[in-house]
Design goal:
Length: about 425
């Protein structure tokens, strides 16, 4: 059993007796050369490391106002809202000025320190050395970062640790990737079940007809087709008295309660402009179409509450099962039908525009049967998805723990 000693670093604890520790400034120096991304390809600083610039990031016109990065440099985003975004670069390139770029001045194994700097414990320590007014504007600069004390194992041990973790983490990441693929497959299966059910019904022998809408080919012959305004009217009931405080939010196809006293996210000074909604109202997020084609834009309310009036709220105008129409609009949503409203160019649409969308009306008995079937089927699928996600979370936590134990020398190879 190896002898251990107290590192004197609270977030690291004990390390092997023969390991050293030092300030980051004894291992790295600041690289501050300004370059253009026309000469040095733009890179993205992510939680997965330093990558060629991602298509999803916001682009800038400041092509000449960037920092040089050389292969082997350590790059970290200085903002607290990008916590954990860092890595040893495998590329020559350029990054935005918000990042700190460091080049090594001591003999080391970069792969070891890539693992070290990605530890949650280091991210927390890095954050502690920052300054700012609020969390979103909290920044850790080099003049503070350089004083953070880290451990320095012998280089040969760094190499053994890096090799072990490379192999081990590759296997773990492969398992996580497979579970995520299974989860995605289940999500796609759920979507297909919903779409098939709400557009074809549960009777496979029923006679079909042309749907008259371009995104659905056939529907049962006896189903009616009408614009949304035939079934729903807009609910406009402002919280003008300010007495309602059951704050609701729409997030990825679900409406959930939101802590009205929380500092998590922006809230207006007054909730008087928010819309009072009721159980079974259908909510449509009809704004910012140009920015997001991935998250779900429709959900059904499960309770009385208030929600931003920037969203469309619809209440049933005749005897229907709102849950069926919620599932139908969910199918439209995943087919991205909403983006065709207003010629697909507008940043948003209003109820008048949305309400002209054609929907299908099965008999009320069929609506009820489909809702019962889909509730049971989706609950079953969601349970399996939840189990997969729990497995992923457990494995990811194991990976973090393993890296910490190996990188800090608490577990001997």
């Amino acid at each position: 059993m190896r002898e251990m000693k107290d590192s004197g670093i609270e977030w690291i604890g004990e390390i092997p007796e023969h390991w050293a520790f030092s300030r980051i400034s004894s291992l790295y120096r600041l690289r501050s050369e300004k370059v253009s991304d026309r000469d040095y390809p733009p890179l993205s600083v992510t939680k997965s490391g330093i990558l060629p610039q991602l298509d999803t990031v916001a682009k800038t016109d400041a092509h000449d106002d960037r920092k040089l990065v050389k292969r082997g440099d350590f790059v970290i985003n200085s903002r607290s809202d990008r916590r954990g975004s860092c890595g040893i670069s495998e590329y020559d390139g350029s990054v935005s000025l918000i990042n700190t770029v460091l080049y090594p001045i001591a003999e080391m194994n970069p792969r070891y320190y890539n693992c070290f700097f990605h530890m949650n414990e280091f991210a927390d320590e890095f954050y502690k050395w920052g300054h700012g007014i609020v969390d979103d504007l909290w920044t850790t600069r080099w003049q503070d970062m350089k004083n953070i004390v880290i451990i320095v194992p012998p280089v040969d041990e760094q190499e053994r640790i890096a090799k072990f973790l490379d192999e081990k983490c590759t296997n773990i990441d492969s398992l996580i990737s497979e579970l995520k693929k299974q989860t995605e497959t289940l999500e796609e299966y759920k979507q297909s079940v919903i779409t098939e059910t709400v557009t074809k019904g549960l009777n496979s022998d029923v006679e079909m007809k042309d749907s008259s809408v371009q995104w659905i080919e056939k529907i049962p012959k006896h189903w009616n087709t009408h614009p949304i305004y035939y079934y729903f009217e807009e609910r406009k009931n402002k919280n003008s008295s300010g007495l309602e405080n059951n704050l609701l939010s729409l997030s990825y196809g679900k409406i959930a309660r939101r802590n009205i006293n929380s500092n998590d996210g922006l809230l207006p000074e007054s909730l008087n402009t928010y819309n009072i909604i009721e159980k079974d109202d259908i909510i449509i997020r009809s704004i910012d179409l140009q920015n997001d084609k991935r998250s779900l834009r429709t959900a059904i309310a499960k309770e009385h509450g208030i929600i931003t009036s920037a969203y469309i709220a619809m209440k049933a105008a005749k005897t229907i099962n709102p849950e069926y129409f919620h599932y139908l609009l969910y199918a439209y949503d995943i087919m991205k039908v909403f983006y065709n409203i207003g010629n697909g160019v507008r940043q948003g649409f209003n109820f008048s525009e949305f309400s002209r969308l054609i929907v299908f009306e099965p008999t009320i008995e069929e609506q009820n049967e489909m809702v019962t079937y889909l509730q049971e089927k989706c609950t079953e699928i969601d349970k399996t998805i939840s189990e997969k996600k729990k497995q992923i979370k457990t494995i990811e936590q194991y990976k973090k723990s393993l890296i910490y134990e190996i990188v800090t020398g608490k577990k001997k190879l």
